[in-house]
Write a structure and sequence with these properties.
about 290 residues; mainly alpha; 11 helices
Length: about 290
């Protein structure tokens, strides 16, 4: 029963990782694509659970079992996501690196808590270690969901292939640099060593958050500049339209003045019955209109 619980908890953690790797692309796929993706992920979790159980049943619960459950078992879940959200390989690599560091951080924090409670971490505490991982995951879920939903950098990361690969491999290299030195390590009894492991992903997330915040502020500033230029163009257009309206108003004022003068003259000539002068005046006004 303990072996199955360990395998089940490991599978739950893999599904949680798959969920966070899905979040950055959630808006890029429609409802049908999302259903198809999660159907494939959950279907794979059944043989994935059996594989984890067989590994634990064969090797028993120890640190080697824990590493086998997490060093390679994530691969099918990631491949399913990549196949269902195609043409975004640099983004998938980048998201995987971030999610791997995030999972490592929770493992390190779980190890710190167990060390504080039990002074050391032994094999029989590993199921509790996974349980603590899930509890920590749920506790910070609102923040982490928001973080992963807006994880991807700006649009250049998608359009510029060369630039995108430089960014994509950075968190993966950071993760490998963190995980390789401890591949042969069984347990870290010293709390300072565990805190050192925890500090590495924390440092990365802090730096990335600062860089992303700076990038967001720069984009916001650029957007404000573009809006400012747009409004300035609109203001210049309004000024030109106002100027034209004022000129038209002046022309209309002159025209009204001329019309009033013309009407007075016509009335005066009608009263005098001077039809020749009236006809000459009308002909003159017609010539003026034709010349305009």
């Amino acid at each position: 029963m303990l072996n199955f619980s360990f395998a089940f908890l490991a599978t739950i953690i893999h599904i949680a990782g798959a969920y966070f790797r899905y979040l950055p692309f959630a808006e890029a796929i429609d409802h049908k694509g999302t259903v198809k993706l999660w159907r494939a992920l959950l279907l794979w979790s059944i043989p994935g659970l059996l594989i984890n159980f067989l590994v634990v049943h064969t090797l028993e619960i120890n640190m080697a079992t824990l590493k086998l459950s997490f060093f390679f078992s994530w691969l099918p879940y990631s491949l399913i996501t990549i196949l269902n959200i195609p043409n975004r390989l640099p983004q998938h690599v980048f998201v995987f690196g971030i999610q791997a560091l995030f999972a490592f951080m929770l493992h390190a924090l779980s190890g710190v808590i167990l060390t504080l409670l039990y002074q050391t971490v032994t094999p029989h505490l590993l199921p509790l270690h996974l349980t603590l991982w899930i509890i920590l995951f749920l506790l910070i879920f609102p923040w982490s969901k928001q973080f992963f939903s807006g994880l991807l950098p700006n649009e250049q990361f998608i359009t510029d292939t060369k630039y995108s690969w430089y960014i994509a491999v950075l968190p993966v290299l950071f993760y490998l640099g963190t995980i390789i030195p401890i591949t042969n390590v069984t347990f870290l009894p010293d709390i300072t060593d565990r805190l050192a492991r925890l500090s590495i992903p924390l440092f990365f997330f802090l730096i990335y958050s600062l860089v992303k915040y700076s990038s967001h502020e720069e984009e916001h500033h650029h957007r404000l500049q573009m809006l400012n230029k747009h409004f300035r163009r609109q203001l210049d257009t309004l000024k030109e339209q106002t100027k034209l309206m004022q000129e038209n108003e002046k022309a209309m004022s002159v025209l009204r003045h001329d019309l009033r003068h013309s009407y007075r003259l016509i009335y005066a000539l009608l009263e005098k019955e001077d039809y020749e002068s009236l006809q000459a005046h009308i002909d003159g006004q017609k010539k003026k209109l034709e010349q305009q």
